[in-house]
Structure prediction request, 303 residues.
Amino acid sequence: MTVRLGVKSDPIENRYSFDWLFGVMKDFRVDRLQMGSSFATFTADEDWFRRLRGAAEKKGIRIASVFTSHREMGGWGSGDPSLEATARWGWERLIRVAALVGADSAGSSAGILMRDQPERRARGRECFFANMKDLMRFARQEGLRTITIEPMSSVWEYPSTPEQLLEMTSVFDAAHAAAPDTTVPLYLCGDISHGVADENKRVVHDNWELFELEIPWIWEFHFKNTDSLFNSTFGFGPAERAHGIVDLKRFKALLSRNAARFPADDVTGYLELPGPKLGREYTDGLLRSQLDVSLAALREEFP
Prediction:
């Protein structure tokens, strides 16, 4: 299995252009971009996405994935038909954008169940299942290879626990097996910084356990560092590596010994950074150095 290094576009926000990010990527021989979502994702005309694809390809970069940035697809668990329809529209739009930029996949988290409305859990899960089965067909029609879901770090954000992960993957594996010629498979966008801790700050499932469990369905993943409770996320600069729990050598070894379990022979890990505070003279300029130190650390382990 080949592990490629990519970058997710989230931290440029509205402070730097895609051309600027392409330049940073080229400096580190990174040729895969995961395009995060923004207002433009849901509003710009189709020609803008075609031009963005052309600009990336001129720099030798492929937009291989489109993945949401802000938990936009949260309507499945709302119990409100209007918000459920909005989530469906958002997913269809995301898939269409992925097709326009030439990506293989489109993805998001599954959505959040409101903590004051636990009684809506069952309806939300069934709404999610039914709509994603339809979207597996729509993605096939649009020419994608898969759609992806990101497992999260809270039992209120399905799926997060081993039981939820195995339930979800069994449902969608069966749906694809029943119609392999008219659907794409539903896979995962893993994240090595995600684990589950309870309300008493007790780690119930750590990030290593969950990532390894997910591997048979991991189409792509996020490189990201975190603390011992999965509370804050950050990169791989020297100070961050000193207190973060994601050891890159350990992660590389995990990927290597599980290479045969991945669903593809070519898997991309995207550096996903939150970036510095947006819109300050003394912070925006720090983004380049944050990307540089993390990409340099990743290149040491994944040359």
